[in-house]
Design a protein that fits this description.
CATH class of chain A: Alpha Beta
Largest sheet of chain A: 8 strands, mixed
Helix content of chain A: 25-40%
Strand order of the largest sheet of chain A: 6-7-8-3-9-10-12-11
CATH superfamily of the largest domain in chain C: MetI-like
Structural class of chain C: alpha+beta
Chains: A alpha/beta, B alpha/beta, C alpha+beta
Number of strands of chain C: 4
Structural class of chain A: alpha/beta
Distance between the termini of chain C: 20 Å
Strand content of chain A: 15-25%
Shape of chain A: globular
Strand content of chain C: 5-15%
Order of helices and strands of chain A: EEEHEEHEHHHHEHEHEEHHEE
Number of strands of chain A: 12
CATH class of the largest domain in chain C: Mainly Alpha
Order of helices and strands of chain C: HHHEEEEHHHHHHHHHH
Number of domains of chain C: 2
Largest sheet of chain C: 4 strands, antiparallel
CATH architecture of chain A: 3-Layer(aba) Sandwich
Radius of gyration of chain A: 21 Å
Helix content of chain C: 55-70%
Largest interface: A-B, 41 and 43 residues
Distance between the termini of chain A: 33 Å
Oligomer: heterotrimer
Shape of chain C: elongated
CATH architecture of the largest domain in chain C: Orthogonal Bundle
Chain lengths: 322, 331, 325
């Protein structure tokens, strides 16, 4: 249970800027990102747009190759260049669910044809009949019943929630070890979100996978996950058990996120920690702590050097000099 | 004196039995079906519902900015004594933006990319009133200051601004003629939580100082409960529950409202399993018989399939359209 | 899916109209020998008849001028056959009449027959060039869009360079330097000058599809690059490929007419372009022989309209915003 399935050590991802004026500069989408994921755990990565959370998922899914740093999966280092066999083996174990339920399904194919592919590529279930049975089984698990009604349909004939269920079914079809979910509910209607979240939790248990859940919504992260990582401007600001992050948040940015989140039961009475400003440019990130231009507790030292991750409690680390 | 009293008493906007929708090849879509509500002066009405429930059509109907194939079929929209539903375009022009303005969801599309912020603001002034260039400029700068946009952004173009700034410019545009009512159609949906929060705080602050009323439309009920005085929950073109926010949050009556309230996890307290609502909203071209929510309703009873419940007040400032609460007293 | 698209296409009024024009001209091209009353290339009609079989040499034994246009000759050939040959010369520069629906040329060829036969060459050159251009453009676009990096840079560079060179003068220069006159050189010239436009549009579509989530999912699932390229990306480009085919066919028909009009094709073949060339050469415009230059002009415009309409229709079908409710 406590074995680490995935470990990231000092991973950087820089994108070159395609502009003459800024030639040679890079976008610091991920800087010095290190964390580990335990088997069977749900780890949430929370941050605003531009925080680097999606880049982190894409690096883990090998859509992008990291600029530097080590990614270790099940004890083996995932090198930048892998053979076709290794690549296939990795992808059979690591699957991803995307944010846009429509964009992730090829509009020219029926659900049945879409669902077939993982079985064909990874040669699971073998014969055609067995493949069809497995597809039906997984479709029922994600609540698309009766399955034969859905396999004939094209993505545009489904509602947003149903499309996302197909995406989830496809990700689980290869019986993966790790699921990366990139804001899987943010484009769905409110009434659908909870049932999709519950379904993912149920599938996670029944298929015993590990889960990385990426979101901008702190309360959703709390609902889903065991541990939370808070990212800001490409760097991890705070990492720790979900309840500690929510109730004993240490980093000013985590506290800002928490106070900005809508939470009716706390009402308007609560004192808010509000600060203006936007996520800084990732081409020329501010020196020192990336949050210092917006931080209400900023001191001189903050702009001088990037604070190191500091342990403040068991499993609770924070990147702040305070 | 009595006259003044009466004026104080009547709501700023009274929407009565409004029916609006749009025509497509295969029929008429009743996007807004028999909707009634009142909005007091200085009030903050939140309208919540899923996509396709008709909330945006309602907003555009009030602005009389419906698209070509959409019309107001019947009902009235009394705004300071005038029925907006019956005004002709010339009369509407005098009210639109002067008395009622709007902030849109996507600032990217609503702002003209080739005009600077200042030009767009002063253009809006010149379009509606005689003003010298310097007066208009002064007014534009004042409004920008209200929404915390620094002076030197006056000559910036929309693409040079961040998402949050653009949305604040949108609000400045809505404020520029000092309207009495601002309709906000998901103005913060595309923004990050922190930016959303600063904008909401700004709106609330301005509302206190300037005294305008707001109709705020969003699908994010958790946000709406916090910020609005009165809440209307829309489902499939109808208001299913209407009342004071606090009352709705503490005692949601309609199963749909209950479902929505159960659709966002909370930041505090115990983590409890939540359900959300199964199924999907009906096709407004052929809505289900009876109560439109009954196919998804966990508490449906036989009568729900046959007739459609009307909105009835069952407690002080709290009405619901549901047979489960018909005639029942709320204790 | 394809069936749906096709029925949508037929339901669209513009598409239907365009398709009808194309079907009409295709029919004319296929059945040209049945439709055309005369041989398009000659100015006379010969009727040969065996009079009597006899041994002997080919010598004209009788010659008789019946009237201004018709001549009758009787002669024996080789061993034993006597032929009677009645040659009717067609009137020169005749106005449209019952015998000659579109009149005749200055040399006396029947213009209606020329138009009918000309449809063959014109359509064939157009369609073959359109196909050639589209395949070339699609291949380059898929290569550039999918593999990106250096491949993309090189292809994009060439595309942009060719886009900058005005294609009509380029066509004329190439055509003038090529010594072989005929249809195939024209197809090659047209194809090689019109690919950049299509390539550019198709490439940008590949690039945008490549970054769509469903392609990323395929990569995460472990699909092979070629599978992704041909089975995931290509089917989503069908409408654009069709549009590109229609546009390049239209451009090819125009280009062919232009080259032939300028005399840069093989002027001895019969196509709408060469009809215009001969009309211009014989001063049809000056002498007011409208029946000579107007029909080819109208037909070129019509076939152009046909492809343009189908193109609009594809735009409407694939872009729901333009689709009428």
């Amino acid at each position: 249970m406590n074995e680490n399935i995935l470990v990231l050590e000092g991973v950087n991802k820089h994108f070159p800027v395609n502009s003459f004026r800024m030639h040679g500069k890079v976008v610091h989408a991920m800087d010095d990102v290190s964390f580990s994921l335990r088997r069977g755990e749900v780890l949430a990565i929370v941050g605003e747009s531009g925080s680097g959370k999606t880049t982190t998922a894409n690096v883990m899914a090998r859509i992008y190759k990291q600029t530097s740093g080590r990614v270790t999966f099940e004890g083996r280092e995932i090198s930048k260049n892998m053979s076709r066999e290794d690549e296939l083996r990795y992808h059979k174990k690591v699957q991803m669910i995307f944010q846009d339920p429509f964009g992730a399904l090829n509009p020219t194919r029926t659900v049945g044809r879409i669902m077939e592919r993982p079985f064909v590529i990874h040669k699971i279930a073998g014969r055609r009949k067995a493949v069809e049975e497995s597809i039906d089984k997984i479709l029922i698990q994600v609540g698309l019943e009766p399955p034969e009604q859905f396999t004939r349909k094209f993505p545009h004939e489904l509602s947003g929630g149903q499309r996302q269920r197909v995406n989830i079914a496809r990700a689980f079809a290869v019986e993966p070890e790790l699921i990366l979910a990139d804001e899987p509910t943010s484009m769905l209607d409110v009434s659908n979100r909870m049932s999709i979240m519950n379904m993912m939790l149920y599938l996670k248990e029944s298929h015993s996978v590990s889960f990385i859940y990426i979101t901008h919504d702190l309360s959703g992260a709390r609902y889903m996950s065991d541990r939370i990582i808070v990212m800001y401007a490409g760097m991890i600001m705070e990492i720790g058990p979900a309840e500690k992050i929510i109730n004993n948040s240490f980093h000013p940015y985590t506290r800002l996120l928490k106070s900005a989140a809508p939470s009716p039961e706390m009402g308007l009475k609560r004192k808010r920690l509000i600060t203006g400003g936007d996520i800084p440019s990732l081409i020329d990130p501010p020196g020192g702590c990336r949050f210092h231009p917006r931080c209400p507790f900023v001191s001189d030292i903050c702009s001088l050097e990037v604070p190191a991750m500091k342990k403040i409690d068991e499993g609770h680390y924070v990147r702040c000099i305070l | 004196m009595i006259e003044l009293d009466r004026l104080e008493m009547t709501p700023l906007l009274q929407c009565k039995n409004l029916v609006a929708g749009y025509r497509i090849k295969s029929g008429f879509v009743h996007a807004v079906d028999d909707v009634s509500f009142d909005l007091d002066r200085g009030g903050f009405l939140g309208i919540a519902g899923e996509s396709g429930c008709g909330k945006s059509t309602l907003a555009y109907a009030i602005m009389r900015l419906l698209k070509d194939n959409a019309t107001i079929e019947s009902g009235s929209l009394l705004f300071k004594g005038a029925d907006l539903a019956k005004l002709d375009e010339e009369q509407m022009k005098k009210i639109r933006w002067v008395d009622i303005s709007m902030a849109f969801q996507s600032a990217m599309n609503a702002l003209n990319p080739v005009l600077s912020v200042g030009e767009q603001l002063t253009d809006a002034i010149h379009a509606h009133e005689e003003a010298t260039q310097s007066d208009a400029r002064k007014r534009a700068l004042e409004v920008l200051k209200l929404v915390d946009i620094p002076k030197d952004r006056f000559n910036s173009y929309p693409h040079q601004l961040s998402g949050g700034m653009k949305q604040r410019v949108m609000i400045a545009m809505a404020l520029i003629l000092n309207p009495e009512l601002i309709i906000m159609d998901e103005p913060t949906t595309a923004l990050d939580v922190v930016v959303q929060r600063t904008i909401i705080e700004k709106i609330q602050e301005l509302r206190k100082t300037l005294g305008f009323s707001v109709i705020f439309i969003t699908h994010d009920l958790s946000l709406l409960v916090e910020i609005s005085d009165t809440l209307a929950i829309m489902y499939a073109g109808k208001i299913v529950e209407y009342g004071a926010s606090e009352s709705l949050f503490n005692r949601p009556l309609h199963p749909y409202t209950k479902g929505l309230m159960n659709s966002f996890p909370s930041l505090t307290g115990m983590i409890k399993r939540m359900g959300g609502i199964e199924g999907k909203p009906p096709d407004l071209l052929k809505p289900p018989e009876g109560c439109r929510f009954h196919p998804r309703c966990p508490q449906a009873i036989p009568i729900c399939r046959e007739s459609c419940p009307s909105l009835e007040e069952i407690a002080d400032r709290h009405s619901v359209a549901c047979f489960l609460h018909k005639g029942a007293e709320i204790l | 899916m394809l069936k749906d698209t096709f029925s949508l296409f037929i339901e669209n009024r513009k598409a239907l109209f365009g398709l009808m024009i194309l079907v009409f001209f295709s029919g004319v091209a296929i059945f040209a020998p049945l439709i055309a009353p005369y041989d398009p290339k000659t100015n006379k009609v010969d009727v040969l008849r065996i009079v009597e079989e006899e041994m002997g040499r080919t010598t004209t034994v009788e010659r008789e001028q019946i009237d201004e246009f018709t001549e009758r000759r009787v002669y024996t050939q080789s061993i034993a056959t006597t032929y009677e040959r009645v040659t009717t010369k067609l009137p020169l520069n005749a106005r449209p009449s019952r015998q000659h629906l579109l009149g005749t040329t200055k040399a006396g060829q029947d213009l209606f027959s020329q138009m009918v036969y000309g449809t063959r060459i014109t359509l064939a050159v157009g369609l073959v060039t359109g196909l050639f251009t589209t395949i070339l453009a699609l291949t380059l676009a898929l290569l550039a869009g999918y593999f990106g990096g250096v491949v993309d840079d090189i292809i994009s560079l060439f595309t942009n360079v060719f886009l900058v060179i005005p294609s009509l003068p380029l066509m004329i220069v190439i055509a003038a330097y090529i010594t072989v006159r005929g249809v195939i050189p024209i197809v090659l010239i047209l194809g090689l000058t019109s690919w950049p436009w299509s390539t550019r549009i198709l490439r940008s579509q590949v690039v945008s599809l490549r970054n769509r989530d469903f392609v990323r999912v395929s990569r995460i699932l472990g699909e092979r690059p070629l599978y992704i390229l041909f089975r995931e990306i290509l089917p989503n480009m069908i409408s654009l490929v069709m549009a590109s085919f229609f546009t390049s066919t239209m451009a090819a028909i125009m280009g062919e007419a232009t080259l032939e009009f300028l005399g840069l094709g093989n002027v001895s073949i019969v196509s709408w372009g060469t009809i215009l060339y001969w009309a211009q050469n014989s001063g049809a415009l000056l002498s007011g022989a409208w029946w000579w230059f107007l029909p080819p002009g109208i037909c070129i415009a019509l076939i152009g309209t046909s492809f343009a309409l189908m193109n609009f229709a594809i735009d409407e079908i694939s872009n729901p915003k333009l689709r009428k409710r």
